[in-house]
Amino acid sequence: MKRRSFLKGIGAAATTTPFAGCTAISRKNKYMNYVPKGTISRRTLGNTGMQASILGFGSHLKKELIADPELRDRLIKLGYEGGINIFDVYDHSGYKQFKPMGKSLKGFRKEVLVSLCIVKSTEDMQEEINGALGDFFTDYIDLYRLYTVNDDRINILEKNKKAGKIRAIGVVSHDVPTMKKYIDQYGDVLDYVMIVYNFHHNIGSYAAKKGYPPNDYTALLPLIERTGLGVLGIKPMGSDAMIALARKKKFFKDRNANVAQAMLRHVYEKVEIDTAMPAMNSMEEVVKNLESAYNPKLSSYEKGLLTSLSSTASSTKSAYLPEHYKWLENWTTRVV
User: Fold this and answer.
1) Of 47, 194, 272, 318, which sits most exposed with the smallest number of CB within 10 A?
2) What is the pLDDT of residue 132?
């Protein structure tokens, strides 16, 4: 089924927020009749041969959206209509989103990439994989990753890949040393990785390209590239807390640029990152994110805006982050 065939089905009640990415939800109809007008570039995901849109549909949901499956369905279909072809979701902490997303994607399942994370114990992994196949009305999952990684769990994914139930095996980690270890141990098995990447949380120093925010990967991304792995970039906007900080410090009052769109464009410009995976919890978030991907070039003005916000975040010494996200600062090394 072609993307444009869904246009008539998504023009229902919408929501609006002051920025794209991670927000609270308020009902308005401003984007009810929005029709996507643009093309999103795609990149080859490592050595898999799979083509992924540079903007993906991230997995984090707010409780309000979990309680509104009809709206969630419209957001997913609007994303697909707009050119997004990779959809990520996980099913822990009470999310229970496999079945709803499976229903939303059912009409165009073969045209998109489904990205999932194993959450169950090793002994229950096979049951989880088989269940996902049913939930998504499919005989294979495109991308399946591990957060808890060991030989047994890797072997189970390998067996399922050989059986045609999984197309690509991945891992995700919240720290660089652990990710390097995974690549060293399983680089010949892995197809892709999921890592933190944004204008601020991305390991590096002032040795980055002139005019860009001062943090940039110095070791991890070259290792990933040498290994031929695809890369999904999570936290492309630096989390809800970064958005809240930008709002508090009036960055969203700037009429010359939308700072959230600038955040995404920074990720698009990093060609080693195949797909940016922001959460989308409102119609406006989907619309603004799509528009950033239709015009992905980061302007010099936007670079300056992000450099300023990065410096502002660093000046708080991680105080802007809640305790459960303090680890994000481990992805930022600033050398003056």
Assistant:
1) 47
2) 96
